[in-house]
Specification:
Blueprint (H helix, E strand, L loop, with lengths): L1 E3 L6 E4 L5 E5 L10 H8 L7 E5 L15 H15 L5 E6 L1 H12 L4 E7 L10 H12 L8 H7 L5 H8 L2 E4 L2 E4 L3 H9 L21 E6 L9 H8 L3 E6 L6 H4 L1 H13 L7
Parallel strand pairs: 3-4, 3-5, 5-6, 6-9, 9-10
Antiparallel strand pairs: 1-2, 2-4, 7-8
Helix pairs in contact: 1-10, 2-3, 4-7
């Protein structure tokens, strides 16, 4: 597994040969959240796929933005993919926030995409970021100047769910004696404060033709992020969408049912062309 920052965004590479697969994470996530799925897809000899785990802008080790924009996020990802593999097309996999970015990327830069896999998100306005406000408040309340160690941070952090706590605290970084949030917490918090005007919760109205390529829409059977009413809107943008409901999975489909996700991706990768037409 190698790290680099082509096209301006930080990335991790998994695999040495095979079709190109790009993974886009969700809010407060990082590309490495997809590491285990990418390793399984690449296989023990690394030739099953060449996976690129992308840190989106304002996340991980990628640069911060002054304002949130799905179009800007998609443009940054497009520059990164084109820099890594000029003239090649990608299987693009996006979860939650990354799923919206992957849809905008595909509509705005169709020449880069061979196949699209959207994980548990719909191309719609979710209204606000209220479901994340508790996490944001917990992160803002952590007294960074007083921290003495990561164990101290874990003890002070109020989140009761150990999985959520570990996920959020992966954003905490130390440089010497200084602690900071690697994610652009101020930008995300400001967007949450906008309530129903949140840009992150929204989905942009793009002046783009529907994309006629193959799309797999992986939806958690126990998730509330995708409703039956969303199918028409999804197929208006992506007519060849195949909806796959994953039993025993909530919003984090690839964490709850990794074997199902890996097998689905293997089939998608096997059917995807590698060069631009």
């Amino acid at each position: 597994m190698t790290a680099s920052a082509p096209g301006g965004l930080n990335t991790l590479s998994v695999g040495t040969d095979g079709p190109r697969v790009a993974f886009l994470h969700g809010l407060f996530g990082q590309g490495r959240n997809w590491t285990q799925v990418a390793k399984a897809l690449a296989g023990p000899d690394g030739t099953g796929a060449r996976c690129l785990l992308v840190d989106l802008p304002d996340h991980g080790r990628s640069p911060w933005s002054e304002a949130f924009s799905y179009e800007a996020y998609a443009s940054a990802v497009a520059d990164t993919l084109a820099a890594v593999a000029p003239g090649e097309r990608w299987v693009v996999v996006g979860h939650s926030l990354g799923g919206k970015v992957s849809m905008v990327l595909t509509l705005a830069h169709p020449e880069l995409v061979a196949s699209l896999v959207v994980v548990d998100i719909a191309p719609k306005d979710y209204g606000d970021l209220d479901r994340f406000r508790g996490y944001i408040d917990e992160m803002l309340a952590l007294p960074l100047a007083d921290l003495t160690s990561r164990a101290d941070a874990e003890a002070r952090f109020a989140e009761p769910d150990p999985g959520v706590k570990a996920f959020l605290l992966q954003n905490l970084r130390r440089s010497g004696t200084e602690w900071s949030w690697q994610a652009n917490l101020a930008l995300i918090a400001a967007d949450a404060e906008r309530g129903a005007d949140s840009d992150i919760a929204d989905f942009p109205a793009l002046q783009a033709d529907p994309w006629e390529g193959p799309v797999v829409w992986l939806v958690g059977g126990e998730s509330e992020y995708v409703r039956d009413a969303d199918v028409a809107d999804m197929r208006a943008l992506f007519p060849r969408t195949r909806l796959v409901t994953v039993r025993g999975a909530a919003h984090w489909v690839h964490t709850d049912q990794p074997a199902v996700v890996v097998e689905t991706l293997r089939r998608v990768v096997a059917a995807s062309p590698r060069r631009a037409s």
